[in-house]
Amino acid sequence: MDEMEIVVDRDEWRAGFEQRVLNGYRDAGCSEPLAEALLEQAVRDIDGWTVATDGVGWAAVGVREDNGVIVGRIHDLTARRGREWAERWCAARGARRVEVRLTGGTGEFADYPVLGQLRMRAAAQDPALPEGLTVRPLTEEEYPTWLAGQHAAYIADIVRAGALTTEQARDKSDRDFALNLPQGLLTPGHAFYAMEADGRRIGTGWVHHGFLPGVTFGFSLDVHEEYRGRGYGRAAMAVGEWATRQGGDVAMMFNVFGGNAVAMSLYDNTGFTVLDEYRSIDL
Fold this sequence. Notes:
By secondary structure, the chain is an alpha+beta fold. It folds into 2 domains: 5-112, Gcn5-related N-acetyltransferase (GNAT) (Aminopeptidase); 122-275, Aminopeptidase (3-Layer(aba) Sandwich), CATH 3.40.630.30. The protein is 34% helix and 32% strand. It has a 12-stranded mixed sheet, sandwiched between helices. Strand 10, helix 6 (232-246) and strand 11 (251-257) form a beta-alpha-beta unit.
């Protein structure tokens, strides 16, 4: 069969898809509870996906609205000519761009620009703070200025990745911060740090403990611009590792947006592996 046909009975496809997703996370070093939690995220809204087959492989697709724009999503692809069919399917439903989540390599999506990555590494059993660096909680007085800076950095990251316009990114930033920090500095499970060297604040950190089983999520580990290029980037990652253990977790996870080659190089060099990579292309 050369053409793709829509599948009504999806049990065979779903069983194979879920097994492949689980195996991908296990191969990346995730614990079984973490792999299953990530699978649960990966199959969210799965009943709304459209699945097709060429008799040998599969393609699973869907569309959603993102800030007023229809976006297509290729959720699974093993069929030989599935990409061409999936892009046509999304375009026929008004999609302006198509996204894909990849685990374990780019496959045939190497020409899709990187939208973002989910990275993770295990924390050392008893990590120490870098010599000369101290960490303290962020104060109530520092929080408003810190929050404004986080909003601005997040908006810039989204725009640089090519996902949204500045106005759309600003709206997304407002929604995401309201969702993640409903009680601001006092939001349960979240910790905020100031990193200091020689009596000067050289950066800040924001982490969420217990984000997933055994995982602390690093929302930001930032070195102030005037202190960059002095090795503090690696020090900030060590602070994240220390904070992970302080929160009782065993691994740290975070997102990095596409277009940030400097950050990706730092994460490569500090052992943070790519769990998922998200790529996107305009139609």
